[in-house]
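Practice problem. Given the sequence and the SMILES for pyridoxal-5'-phosphate, write out the predicted structure.
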Amino acid sequence: MTIHSGRHFLQIPGPTNVPDRVLRAADLPTIDHRGPEFPRLVFDVLEGLRAVFQTTGPVIVYPSSGTGAWEAALVNTLSPGDRVLAFETGHFATLWRKMAEALGLAVTFVPGDWRHGVDPAAVERYLQGDSAHTIAAVMAVHNETSTGVTSRIPAIRAAIDRAHHPALLLVDTISSLGSIDYRHEEWGVDVTVGGSQKGLMLPPGLGFNAVSSKALATAERARLPKSYWAWSPIISANRQGFFPYTPATNMLCGLRESLAMLREEGLDAVFARHSRHAEATRRCRSSLRSGNGTFVRHPLLGGLI
Ligand SMILES: Cc1ncc(COP(=O)(O)O)c(C=O)c1O
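Answer key:
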């Protein structure tokens, strides 16, 4: 048997390491999700999430992985046979497309080389060509975890607006939320999909949808089948500080703590930290490449890599 000493330190894009403060906050005897102290937790978490998504609208929390939150975004806003426009920016865009097809949507999947984000000019071109407005939604992955390629969401929004097209804008921020500047409301996104296990510094297990008022109105007529994922019963239970089912109570305790940590550091400082680490990683990779694969001392990381 191999005995590993020290602490397991996961170095992948996500799940990320969970800070001790967050682990301790989740390490509690389970509380009653119908009890009197539960609404305080729910209100704190929803307020903190609105700050991170940069929205004043509803944020829905699911006890799910990010994939569940993808599905929720689609089934709440779309109807069988609806056309959606998606872009091959990498592995996760490809998986989201497959899900859309499995749900009975007609996906126009614009091919890509996994080295570039969504091309706003292509968005505009496809939407201009759809004068009958049959495209119901544009789907974009903000940060492709598989490649590190980031798409420019405000430029996509501007392209939709230039085409005067009513399509919804659905954005996956699973690896960008809490890592790269992201503004649900200011950027005019209709549904933002998030997950707990990356920039939010939690274990895997929570999925999120931030929702615009246009998406909420569309949800009233969207006909894809849904029950568990339906926004409306969750939003109305949340108003009283509860959920219509048993929520992931201990994860919510951890989330309250991670949101507090993000607030204390300040989102701008958080984004600057991630950008510094990303730049350090890029420079290390190029140093390694030019160094015949030998270890090098890197000025940004200040040690041997
Ligand atoms: C950008 C992106 N989208 C979607 C997913 C799928 O999320 P999950 O694995 O939590 O279901 C991931 C997972 O890493 C991701 O990075």
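Check your answer against the key. The domain at 23-259 is CATH 3.40.640.10 (Aspartate Aminotransferase; domain 2).
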